[in-house]
Design a protein that fits this description.
8-stranded mixed beta sheet; 4-stranded antiparallel beta sheet; 21% strand; binds iron/sulfur cluster
Amino acid sequence: MSSTSSTSPDGPASPVIDIQGLELRFPGESGPVTVIDKVDLTIGTGEILGLVGESGCGKSMLARSIMRLIPVSARVTGGRVLFEGQDLLTIDESEMRRIRGNRIAIILQEPMTSLNPVFTVGNQITEVLSTHQPGLKPEERKKRAIEMMERIGIQFPAHRFSQYPHELSGGIRQRVMIAIALIGGNVGLLVADEPTTALDVTIQAQILELFVRLQAEQRMALLLITHDLSVVAQTAHRVAVMYAGRLVEIADVISLFENPLHPYTLGLMNSLPRPGDRPRKSHMDAIPGTVPNLANLPPGCQFFDRCEHRRDEPCLNTMPQLEETADGHWVRCHRWRDIQPSSSAMVTT
Ligand code: SF4
């Protein structure tokens, strides 16, 4: 392995989305709190990028920043989000509305809270067409909605079209959310924020298969956000690991699983279930402690308090920078050369 002098992660040669130095802050009692800290990330055409980390690491805020759907109290204080040559952070809201749901779409974790309970599934899918293709006649909108429902594996789509969300199972509701996300146009980037977390394991696998199939058919970029490394192991081409608002490791999926370098990535891997585990382990029990309070971060490495490889020098007072350890494999750790996985992770889900 060789380290280089580059300072930001390389991605695909012609990215669909190019996030540069993104910084997001919330107001705090003692001043602004940085929840996304100078994140650089790219996703290429036809690429699935898995973004992993525990709750509170900034993954969802990163997704919402791309979509410009951040809470009103939050502020983007730096960076650019380039999509098809435009900086999504600076275009006017009407242009952003045109892009959102048409060229970029988002799917959220819990379909029951994203779907409107008082409208039928058909209403909610065709509403997207009304917004993005207003010239379509109602019967054509209905026809396209039913075709889309069929394409994403909803059985009896004409019947489902007239049903309300509460009449559907969690898996079908999530398929409806996918139909809503994709029907608006030629989606170039799909952001899926914990899209399978609320589903049972069998349905999870079916929905992940559906994502992979749709992504390949449409050659779209997919940003798949999850706290569960086993989900990205099954689907992603590249993986970015986020901790306390910063990216700490980025690599193609094989390199990451064969040669994880950041202690946090190792902790996530060691928390994966292995054959013989009984009962299934809690996901995060291999990592002691919790994500630090972002309003009161340590001066050096943010993982310091939880890291079994820490040393006072240099970890305590010097923030590690992202460093390229091999082609396309980046890590933010002073001691990555000394760290070897204690045992290889096995993914069984
Ligand atoms: S820099 Fe030090 S404390 Fe931080 S992850 Fe690496 S070894 Fe652990």
